[in-house]
Design goal:
0% helix; DUF427; single chain
Length: 159
C-alpha cells in the first residue's frame, strides 16, 4: 500500500516528544457516522511511537462523547481525562482522551481530543485508513509511510 504522506521513521522522532500542526484531513467514522473531521489537528511525535493525532472539539461530534471518571498522568503533557462514546443504547468505553490543563510545552492541545483507532470502524489521515498502534495502552495511528518497529509490539514494553 502506498501512502500520500512522505516517508518517516518513528526512530527519528524526538524524546521528549514534540507537537506539530497537521494540514491533512483527519477523519473518524463508526456505524455510518462521521464522529470527527478536521484539517486543524495536531500530532504528537515521540521516539518509537506512531503519531498521536489530537482533534479540535469544534470538529468533533461532541454530542456522542461523555467524559468518564478515569484519569491518567503523562510526564510530558500532564493529567489526561477520558471519554466514552454513546451511540443510542450502545456505550463504547474510553475511546478518546484529552488534557484540560496540559503542560506549557503542550498548551496547544488544551481541550483537543485524541482517539484510539481500534475503537472505530475507520480512522483516516489524508484519505488513508490507519492501523492502530499495537497494545491497548497506546493511541498512535500507523500509516503506510511509517517505518518501525513500533512501541507496543510484543517485547517492546521496556524500550
Amino acid at each position: 500500500m502506498t501512502s500520500p504522506l512522505p516517508p518517516e521513521s518513528v526512530w527519528d522522532y524526538p524524546r521528549p516528544p514534540r507537537v506539530e500542526p497537521v494540514a491533512h484531513l483527519i477523519e473518524i467514522h463508526t456505524q455510518d457516522r462521521c464522529i470527527a473531521r478536521t484539517q486543524g489537528a495536531y500530532r504528537v511525535l515521540e521516539t518509537s511511537h506512531p503519531p498521536v493525532y489530537y482533534l479540535p472539539p469544534q470538529d468533533i461530534q461532541m454530542q456522542y462523547l461523555c467524559q468518564n471518571p478515569r484519569h491518567s498522568f503523562c510526564e510530558w503533557k500532564g493529567q489526561a481525562h477520558y471519554y466514552d462514546l454513546h451511540l443510542g443504547s450502545q456505550v463504547i468505553r474510553e475511546v478518546a482522551w484529552g488534557y484540560a490543563q496540559p503542560t506549557a510545552a503542550f498548551r496547544v492541545l488544551q481541550d483537543y481530543l485524541a482517539f484510539y483507532a481500534q475503537k472505530f470502524e475507520r480512522c483516516l489521515v489524508a484519505g488513508e485508513v490507519v492501523t492502530p498502534q499495537p497494545g491497548e495502552f497506546y493511541g498512535g495511528w500507523i500509516t503506510a509511510n511509517l517505518v518501525g518497529p513500533f512501541k507496543g509490539q510484543p517485547g517492546s514494553w521496556g524500550w
